[in-house]
Amino acid sequence: MKTILIAGGNSGIGLQAARDLLGHGHRLVLLGRDPRKGEAALASFGAAADRASFIAGDLSTHDGVRDAASHLLAQHDRIDALVHTTGVFTFEESRTADGLHPFFAINYLSRYQLTQLLLPALRQAEQPAVLMMTAAIPPTNEMDFARFPEFAPFSLGRDRKAVQLANHHYAAHLTRAEPGLAAGVINAGSAKTDIMRIAPWYMRAAMKVLGPLALDSVETSARNVVEAVRHDDWHGTPVYWGKPGRFEQRTPIVLDAATTRHLMGTSHKLTGA
């Protein structure tokens, strides 16, 4: 039985992955901001809820991530897999308490910081894994990170790829820096989840009309997460799953090492982790 932490596991794709992994007999820890959603998620597991727990945490700030990590380490000395499904979708120019844009803070930096803080527990696992969900962003060296990490003023169209591509660089860093730890990035697909609640009205209207034809099911979007946690045949090199539901189709993450070092150095300076 593995102990699996899903950040963002109280809703959407993370919740579906939690249900599926509970069905395979594993132990789940859900991390989310809203205690009410966490309680509802646990209640939805039925008899399997005795193998699940919820911890509330605000991953939009450095202090919030530190508090969440402290609570997790106090309760779990071993984590076999850490799955990041947290994410926000916003066009607005806003800043967290740390002066960062929420899209950057939640969709990448909190993942870096939380994972770094939980490495002591991950190192206790026989075959630890870290998985990060993003939009459909394949690994590429053709990206300018000059606006990283300020992204000021923020533009979703201009900055989205750089923020999400940083997940690929972190996966490459983890496998290089932590022998025995496997890391991968998974395309979340186009499933309809709560992340769209703050999208412009015209995008929400289009999703409502085209959804039945164009969207992936939540079950399909969660499948690669579940299979990556359950199997270790992909371990050894960082990989990207670009096709929702197609676990066998994966691409090695091969990125410029100097760029990775620069991004990781900046991430460390920002968070101290």
Strand adjacency order, main sheet: 3-2-1-4-5-6-7-8
How many individual helices?
8
Count the beta strands: 8
Give me the CATH fold name.
Rossmann fold
Order of helices and strands: EHEHEHEHEHEHHEEH
Q: How many domains would you count in the coordinates? A: 1
Q: Unreliable stretches, pLDDT < 50, 5 or more residues?
A: none
Would you give an account of this structure?
- The protein is of the alpha/beta class.
- The chain has one domain: 3-Layer(aba) Sandwich (Rossmann fold), CATH 3.40.50.
- Helix content is 44%, strand content 14%.
- It contains eight helices and eight strands.
- The chain has helices at residues 12-23, 35-43, 62-75, 102-122, 156-177, 201-214, 218-230, 257-271; strands at residues 3-7, 27-32, 52-56, 81-84, 129-134, 182-187, 239-241, 251-252.
- Strands 3-2-1-4-5-6-7-8 form an eight-stranded mixed β-sheet, sandwiched between helices.
- The two termini are 29 Å apart.
How would you summarize what this structure contains?
The protein has 273 residues and is an alpha/beta fold.
What is the element layout, followed by pairings?
Elements: E1 3-7, H1 12-23, E2 27-32, H2 35-43, E3 52-56, H3 62-75, E4 81-84, H4 102-122, E5 129-134, H5 156-177, E6 182-187, H6 201-214, H7 218-230, E7 239-241, E8 251-252, H8 257-271
Parallel strand pairs: 1-2, 1-4, 2-3, 4-5, 5-6, 6-7
Antiparallel strand pairs: 7-8
Helix pairs in contact: 1-7, 3-4, 4-5, 5-8
List keywords for this structure.
alpha/beta, 8 strands, Rossmann fold, single chain, 273 residues, 14% strand, globular, eight-stranded mixed beta sheet
